[in-house]
Amino acid sequence: MTDTNWTRLDAYYSEQLVKQDDALQAALDDSAAAGLPAIQVPPNQGKFLNLLARIHGAKRILEIGTLGGYSAIWLARALPADGKLVTLEFEPRHVEIAAANLRRAGVADKVEILQGDAAASLRRLIEQQAAPFDFIFIDADKPNNPLYLELALQLSRPGTVIVGDNVARQGEVGNAASADPAIQGIRRFIELMGDNPRLSATAVQTVGAKGYDGFALAIVEA
Question: Are the C-beta atoms of residues 152 and 162 closer than 8 Å to each other?
């Protein structure tokens, strides 16, 4: 199969199963118009995250990497009326776009965007003794994935679900000799998941509109 086949099939899934509404499409359009990189999850994977969070009954969600707020909308919509999403973003311009997209989607009251270095924001949450999160989505700068996992675990509880995006990267994550810091960051992230006795984890490869990639999925067991 080719990338054309993958993209066509993703479009079919999204048309038949996702039925993206105006607020989600506007979030994509405004992010593109503002020059944000087109690296957000595609619609079918956005709904996949939404369903995972709903299946888990998550009331507190942590997202590392907001970008334009597209995945944040999907995650916020998974929350109950008293739920909360905390999302971390480094770039001030991205925060501005995301905040507008979240307001238009009607979920801004459930979302807190923390602007700044993600590791520093995570450490502040730990210092503030923030309540543990039920669901954590890690989708930011890949060289720091191992650090994000380490800090996220300090904001977890038994039963917390952790999802990591982009863990295949055209299959290069399987190349131990890669000199790419992003590849090595993801490899260490995967290895830490596998070595940590608190976690039960797996990973799946995916293909679609964003090419060949994958998700890591873990649950905190202790």
Answer: yes
Domains defined along the chain, listed by start = 3-220 (3.40.50.150)
Residues 6+ apart with CB under 8 A from 190: 167, 173, 203, 216
Handedness of CA 57, 60, 62, 67 (dihedral sign): positive
pLDDT in tens, 86-141: 999 999 999 999 999 999 999 999 999 999 999 999 999 999 999 999 999 999 99
Give the count of beta carbons closer than 10 Å to the beta carbon of residue 103: 14
pTM for this entry: 0.96
Q: How far apart are the first and last CA of the chain?
A: 41
C-beta separation of 119 from 125 below 8 A: no
